[in-house]
Design goal:
The complex is a heterodimer of chains A (about 190) and B (about 280).
Chain A: E1 4-7, H1 12-17, E2 23-32, H2 35-46, E3 59-61, H3 89-94, E4 99-102, H4 108-117, E5 120-123, H5 129-133, E6 136-143, E7 152-166, H6 173-184
Parallel strand pairs in A: 1-2, 2-3, 3-4, 4-5
Antiparallel strand pairs in A: 2-7, 5-7, 6-7
Chain B: E1 2-5, H1 6-22, H2 26-38, H3 42-61, E2 71-79, E3 82-85, H4 89-103, E4 127-133, E5 138-145, H5 147-150, E6 154-158, H6 163-178, E7 186-194, H7 196-208, H8 218-231, E8 247-257, E9 262-269, E10 276-279
Parallel strand pairs in B: 1-3, 2-4, 7-8
Antiparallel strand pairs in B: 2-5, 5-10, 6-9, 7-9
Helix pairs in contact in B: 1-4, 2-3
Classes of the chains: A alpha/beta (about 190), B alpha/beta (about 280).
Chain lengths: ~190, ~280
């Protein structure tokens, strides 16, 4: 199947063109955050504060990279398990962050929020951190430096290989892909 | 009595941390490539190609295969004729880990307290297992363990009446529940017998055993084959996108147990099943 080239930001219009099972090459600016960063951002929002980045149409990559070696933009940078961000994802979507990159299953509450806010959940290959780091052309610290690997960073990625796992209508590749494969064996 | 300096242990642990994280064992590479050759899932083939490309990049450029460079699990087989001199063994192991994770640009993923959290900043402490064996050498195996897969592991205390079928169902149930979360294709370590804690340790040892070996008991060797085949009929596939390759290996380790019990532990690992051994 031909891979779709997708250029960020992830507007509502663009999000609706993406379907579960689409293989995409993503280009544009994304933000990194995982457990501790999400907790901090959601606490800030609860206090009525602004986030350290503009969440409108933003895409968040659930990643905690290894430290960059001298001369490297970033160390190995594959996705972490997204389910741990399920408690925070609907809040993040409610302030405009539409795209999520990670791996693993999501709760129904997250899928409901995705349908409401036209969210897209992309899968990056878990355990392919050295390969994925090659797509990351720029990396800048935005906030939460004290969190180390979990700090909030702005990345510029080029042709990052991803698969749409859950689309804005709630279709889920984890269910469909497995069903199709098993049906093909009958 | 042969004397071994703690400095030598520090140096070896440092090196093993870096090597294990950057270079996948040959048996694991081989298992992934064999699975790629048999895969027929649509997205699955591309995923396996990327996984192969990834470990080749890591090999050639000395980069961590995965950003989760894990907790350092250290297994020591200490010869009973060895005398360790020059300091505290535990501190030496932790110093080796500290240096390896710093000098190898590996991620520090350990928090000081399970509830109150707080990163220790140097990936210590290591999880250390020691065994006293005959001889005058120390065999050190270091296996960095990522937690995407560790979180999907399970222990169950079966009644003996559950029998073999109970174990088989538990394996399938655990792999099903893990689904896409542990970054399939996975390696499954099964520990049966012993006590509650020993079963879990056996399961961890099982994932460290090379994938081109079988349990020496033909009964369990056959069970390994049968269950790997069953797991690969589930259709979960690489990354959970559907396909044949849900697991690249399934190893079983067993121990005698109590008349009243049949403990069983399943340790899940991802395709980045890392371990490196050196004998001093």
């Amino acid at each position: 199947m031909e891979k779709k080239r997708v250029t960020l930001p992830l507007t509502e219009e663009l999000a609706k063109t993406l379907k579960a099972g689409d293989e995409v090459l993503l280009t544009g600016t994304i933000y990194t955050s995982r457990d501790a960063g999400h907790k901090r951002m959601c606490e800030a929002l609860a206090r009525g504060e602004k986030l350290p980045f503009n969440p409108e149409n933003a895409t968040i990559y659930y990643v905690g990279p290894t430290p960059a070696k001298p001369g490297q933009v970033i160390g190995s940078a594959g996705p972490t398990t997204s389910g741990r961000m399920d408690a925070y994802a609907p809040t993040m979507m409610s302030v405009g962050a539409r795209g999520m990159i990670g791996k693993g299953a999501r709760l129904p509450e997250v899928v409901d929020a995705m349908k409401k806010y036209s969210g897209v959940y992309f899968g990056a290959i878990g355990g392919a951190g050295a390969l994925l780091a090659r797509c990351i052309k720029k990396c800048e610290l935005v906030a939460y430096e004290d969190l180390g690997a979990e700090a909030l960073r702005e990345l510029y990625v080029e042709d990052m290989p991803l698969v749409v796992i859950i689309d804005s209508e709630g279709n889920n590749l984890y269910e469909l892909g497995r069903q199709d494969y098993l049906a093909s064996k009958k | 009595m042969r004397e071994i300096q703690t400095q030598q242990i520090i140096d070896v642990i440092e090196k093993l941390c870096i090597d294990a994280n950057n270079h996948l064992p040959e048996d694991v590479k081989c298992a992934i490539k064999n699975c790629r050759a048999c895969e027929d899932g649509q997205i699955a083939c591309g995923v396996l190609d990327n996984i192969i490309e990834n470990f080749e990049i890591a090999d050639n450029e000395n980069l961590p295969i995965c950003q989760d460079t894990g907790m350092a699990c250290v297994f020591l087989e200490i010869g009973q004729d060895v005398h360790i001199v020059g300091g505290d063994l535990t501190e030496a192991i932790n110093e080796g880990v500290r240096r390896g994770y710093k000098n190898g640009y590996l991620r520090k993923s350990v928090v000081a307290d399970p509830v109150r959290r707080g990163n220790t900043g140097d990936n210590t402490p290591a999880m250390i297992y020691t065994e006293i064996v005959p001889g005058d050498k120390i065999k050190i195996t270091l296996g960095p363990k990522g937690f995407g897969s560790e979180n999907m592991s399970a222990v169950r205390m079966f009644k003996p009446s559950a029998g073999l079928q109970g174990i088989k169902d538990f394996i399938i149930e655990t792999v099903e529940a893990a689904g896409p979360n542990p970054c399939p294709p996975i390696v499954i370590g099964v520990g049966i017998g012993g006590t509650f804690d020993k079963a879990a340790l056996l399961a961890k040892k099982a994932i460290m055993r090379p994938l081109d070996t079988s349990n020496p008991d033909p009964y369990y060797a056959d069970l390994e084959k049968e269950m790997l085949e069953k797991v690969n009929q589930l259709g979960i596939g690489p990354q959970g996108f559907g396909g044949k390759t849900t697991a690249i290996g399934l190893n079983i380790e067993v121990l005698p147990t109590h008349i009243a019990g049949m403990p069983c532990a399943i340790n899940i690992n991802c395709h980045v099943t890392r371990h490196k051994t050196e004998v001093i």
